[in-house]
Amino acid sequence: MGLVVCADAERAAIEVADLIEAAVRNDPRLRLGLATGRTATRAYAELVRRYHASGDLTFRHVTTFNTDEFVGIAPEDPRSTRFTMNTRLFNSIDIRLEHTHVPRGDAEDVELECRAYESLIRARGGLDLVVLGLGHNGHIGFNEPGSSPRSRTRVVEFTESTVAALSDGQRCRNLSETPTRAVTIGLATILEARRLVLVATGIAKAQAVHRAVDCRPGPSVPASQLLAHPGLTIVVDREAASAIDRPSLEVGRV
Ligand code: GLP
């Protein structure tokens, strides 16, 4: 596992953008898994900036799969993952929208949608790199505490703390507007990816980072189950790293 501690959230976004840019330049047909949270979207803003500044960075042949979508929410709804990703990233780079995949949370048969999403990832050959945010309770994608490392794309019910975190005004204005379920890709699908980047910033994530990194891996902290993955890089800022207490960890600092 690589752990990179950055001076602040801005620097962490640059670090994540570096990893994505390098992966896309190395393999223009990259199959990229993407998270939608505030932390990851900071890195996407940096990618958009680089796309316009560089002149030779292209996403034309990249395929993306978002990790999750709210159940019951249509793609046009500003709360949806689809809307967020289109406005924060996809519409601002040269990726083909038909190469960007997000589960339909408003599918009539959402169980069927889950199976179809999983099959689509498999049909495309799996994921090369997945960018993941970290929930306050250690969730990744929307794999809430209790999620099995064998889990696949499915519908999950949010814990109360996740509903509270989601109603913070970024995507949902208040509790009554906050969905209570999502379609999420599973831990097994994530763990099969070749590389994983887990990013967390801010003091509010310090305990989640500590539990993911220092405690015995297990379903109660879903992110801890990523540590067994040989291609995992954790990118945190100093605040998010402040509760890590494993002395043997090799840390890169930028
Ligand atoms: C959310 C999402 C993830 C996100 C993570 C952290 O609930 N399912 O896509 O990466 O939790 O979000 P944030 O970075 O906004 O704290």
Give short descriptive properties of this protein.
binds 2-amino-2-deoxy-6-O-phosphono-alpha-D-glucopyranose; alpha/beta; 11 strands
Structure characterization notes:
By secondary structure, the chain is an alpha/beta fold. The protein has helices at residues 9-26, 38-54, 81-88, 110-123, 160-166, 187-191, 206-214, 238-241, and strands spanning 2-6, 31-34, 63-66, 68-70, 100-101, 129-133, 154-157, 181-184, 195-200, 232-237, 251-253. Strands 5-3-2-6-9-10-1-11 form an 8-stranded parallel β-sheet. The chain has a 3-stranded antiparallel β-sheet with strand order 4-8-7, with helices on one face. Helix 2 (38-54) links the parallel strand 2 (31-34) and strand 3. The model has no long low-confidence stretch (mean pLDDT 96). The structure holds 2-amino-2-deoxy-6-O-phosphono-alpha-D-glucopyranose (GLP). The site of 2-amino-2-deoxy-6-O-phosphono-alpha-D-glucopyranose has 13 residues, from helix 2.
Q: Helices and strands in order, then pairings?
A:
Blueprint (H helix, E strand, L loop, with lengths): L1 E5 L2 H18 L4 E4 L3 H17 L8 E4 L1 E3 L10 H8 L11 E2 L8 H14 L5 E5 L20 E4 L2 H7 L14 E4 L2 H5 L3 E6 L5 H9 L17 E6 H4 L9 E3 L1
Parallel strand pairs: 1-10, 1-11, 2-3, 2-6, 3-5, 6-9, 9-10
Antiparallel strand pairs: 4-8, 7-8
Bound molecules: 2-amino-2-deoxy-6-O-phosphono-alpha-D-glucopyranose.
The site of 2-amino-2-deoxy-6-O-phosphono-alpha-D-glucopyranose has 13 residues, from α2.
